[in-house]
Amino acid sequence: MDNRIFLSKSNVPLKNLNLLEDNNILEFEKLLEKYFGEEKSVLAVNSGTSAIHLSLLLAGVSKGDDVVCQSFTFSASANPIIYQGANPIFIDSEIDTWNMCPFYLEKAIKHRIKNGKKPKAIIFVHLYGMPAKIEEISLIAKKYNIILIEDAAEALGSTYKGQKCGTFGDFGIISFNNNKLLTTFGGGALICKDVKQKEKAFFFSTQARDQAPHYQHSQIGYNYRMSSVLAGIGRGQMSFLNEYLSFRRSVNQFYKSIFKDIDGIYVFEESNKILFSNHWLSCIIVNEKEAGFASEDIRLQLLEDNIESRLLWKPMHLQPIFKEALYFGGSISENLFKQGLCLPSGSNLTKNQLKRISISIKKLL
Ligand SMILES: *Cc1c(COP(=O)(O)O)cnc(C)c1O
Q: Which residues carry this modification: N6-(pyridoxal phosphate)lysine (predicted)?
């Protein structure tokens, strides 16, 4: 029997599937629009990465432009900047939410403007589902009139002052990849402010066909539309969203109870009441001096017991592929990477598996 425990398996009950209907994509988009607010227009696409790429296209980002991006994230936040031939400028995190630091964001923008080049867009992230300092970041984007792209790939169900993550930026991005809170086995969504933007995104996502009886192209297009089969899965999955959300949050509580009285271990949680995280992945920070062991010791112990855990995202400014990119910040994201660990958080974890995790961790304590 396979007794391995994985970091983030999503649960996909085979209910409410309507795979053979043609209108699955439109119906899935309607459900998403209902969820995010009727004033939003949502385009279902084949991945979160393509949603980010489309948002850059719509922001008019092209060759040689600068795009500011959170450094502490998964590479998919930044890669589409390169697809467009633009230059990423990476920003460190702040310690409350682990997301983009507004202070360094403004510093970077001022620096670029001084050099005669205002950034074309800002990509910020709600990492591990934790809402970023949205108000501060939005104010800066407004002040300098820069397009704001909200990478909410990991933050479906998270809210900031009660408003859903993904609805704050000029564009919001959701991922339905296999390991995310809600999966369609690969997929994503682009949340637009209005129908016009959605129509433009639709145009680029379906090979940029001009209006003509033949195939006529005056721009480069992409094949980014979501498949109808996957949209059918998405329709069924939407009814489980709240269930998954409360389960992931209960897993976070479970880790808080395990580590409650342990010195030197901090379970990542909301720093105040305006933040509500889906706790897509539960993460800890281990202070080796206080705890007497490092996050790597926990990882190895879990591995020995067939339980998957993973280091936090390695910041983009430390990645070999981005070593030439400009960076504004200190060492907050670097230290998070050095001391942190993501623990199993999937929505199909059983009571028995949680018990195994608890026993394994307690061997170290
Ligand atoms: C998963 C993820 C993406 C990309 O989504 P895909 O659907 O896998 O392309 C982008 N940004 C972040 C922060 C992610 O975690």
A: 180
